[in-house]
Amino acid sequence: MTVGHVARAIESIGIPTVCVYIEAFRPDAELLKPARTLVTPHLMGRPLGLPHQREQQRAVILAALRLLETADHAPTLETFDVSTHHMEGHL
User: Fold this and answer.
1) Range(s) of the domain holding residue 74
2) Given CB 3.0 to 4.6 Å as the disulfide criterion, which of 40, 43, 48, 89 pairs with 80?
């Protein structure tokens, strides 16, 4: 839950944030409602993907940056689709 609390504090001083959560923590993201959240299907401790999978990690980072640019309301929660490297909206 700490990530959501830190993001909320940073947002409160006017700096936009994107939280990247793994699927196991989706309920926490839905409860905390950070302004912008990207949920990935990756393992605990590896929200961007496995080590040395640069293209996968890059795709997650680019999706998070797109979310930063395109979210038009808060909270916005998107799911990262590993097969297409795109986001799917939920909230």
Assistant:
1) 2-89
2) 40
* Distance (Å, whole) CA 14 – CA 58: 26
Strand ranges, E, within 17-75: 19-22, 36-40
Report, as ranges of residue numbers, the positions in the chain whose pLDDT lies below 50. 91
Please say whether the beta carbons of 18 and 38 come within 8 A.
yes
Angle at 8 between CA 33 and CA 61, to 5 degrees: 80
What pLDDT does residue 91 have?
47
Q: Which two tokens stand for residue 81?
A: 């689709």
Cβ 20 vs Cβ 48: under 8 Å: yes
Q: The tokens of 1 are what?
A: 């839950």
pLDDT at 88: 61
What tokens does 37 get? 């959240």
Res 87: pLDDT: 59
Per residue in 58-67, pLDDT tens?
Answer: 999 999 999 9
